[in-house]
Amino acid sequence: MSAPSRTLLLWCLLRLVIRAGHSFATDSNGQQQDNGCASDSNVVDELLRTHRKNRLPHGGRVDVSTELWVQEISKINELRSEFELDVYMTEAWSDPSLAFDHLNPCKTNLSLDGGTLLRRLWNPSCCFVNSKSASVHRSPFTNIFLMIYSNGTVWVNYRIKLTGPCEKDLKTFPIDQHRCFLTYESFMYNSDEVRLKWINGNPITLLKEIRLPDYKLISYSALHVQRDYPPGRWHELIATFTFQRQYGFYILQAYVPAYLVVLISWISFFLDVDMIQPRTMLGVHSLLALTFQRAAKRVPLRNGYLSVVNYFTDAQLRLQTLTPSFEGNPNARKSRGAHLGRVTTKDNEALQMNLTTL
To answer: Domains along the chain?
Structure first.
């Protein structure tokens, strides 16, 4: 092919590429879009240019819908009365200043990095006010998802690791229940500025079945309350989780052995009253076995009151302590019976002699 032909061919290919570039444009996400619409980056730049983060979206109270997804409940700490869990917390509200229908966008919603952009937008500044510790996951980046719809609806999702408080009453241990709470509210805005509410339907969702070594999640509920503080009234969303202790381990390790020891000690009641040494050995060994079992049983409970298992073991020890003294009564009764028997025999002999004389 001659040089002029090569030049002509290259020029034609260049014209085709230029026309294709005028027909389609590529946005920041790598998607081809018509040249007449605004790309995501242009829309975001325009929204940030006109948005005021310190101004309430409607100039008045903002309704914030909230939803809680429980990813995992990893641990319940009895000594510290707390539980650990990982959750997805979702917030949604309307902000007219972030509507971009008029910008002729290529997409009706924007999926953005919340860890970077959310701090530049107005948000209700909500948090778990009763948490002992809380942090947003950073694996490998800040786990905050932000989506803005063309009508101005803002949807934010946080992935959070939490440690929350629990209420416990160990008086019924090992058949006790624990109730754990999470309280969510706006830290900066009272009820005149932000109104929190659960979404309709099921505001709390378990992403998978919760399994713990010692507890079973038997119920969970969502509650909306208003609480008064010195600066005003705040809306609060409370999530309650109720756990039932799995008592099978304690039945096998505490109750069943104790019952067996007591039953074995009762064998002495069926032995002859003259077998004093075996009866005494059974009673003493049973008492030592109960004492050793109580000392060896390690139940990690630190409370200032007695539980059901404490009353149970104390009653068994008292019963076992009284057994030897109860076992001694038949010997005394036998001695008294033998003495009465001799007395009765003499009386009968005297009676027979009197009858013979008559």
So the answer is: 21-246 (2.70.170.10), 249-352 (1.20.58.390)
pTM of the predicted structure, to 2 decimals: 0.71
Pairwise CA distance, residues 95 & 122, whole Å: 9
Q: Give the tokens for residue 219.
A: 């119920």
pLDDT tens digits for range 277-297? 776 776 666 666 666 666 555
Nearest to 92 by CA among 208, 246, 204, 198: 198
Cβ neighbours of residue 178 closer than 8 Å, sequence gap 6 or more: 76, 78, 83, 166, 167, 168, 215, 242, 243, 245
* CB proximity list for 6: less than 8 A, separation 6 or greater: none
Q: How far apart are CA 175 and CA 249, in angstroms?
A: 11
pLDDT band at 93; cut points 50, 70, 90: very high
Residues 6+ apart with CB under 8 A from 32: 24, 25, 26
- The whole-angstrom separation of Cα 26 and Cα 49 is 23
Burial of residue 157, with CB atoms counted within 10 A of its CB: 0-12 exposed, 13-18 middle, 19 or more buried: middle
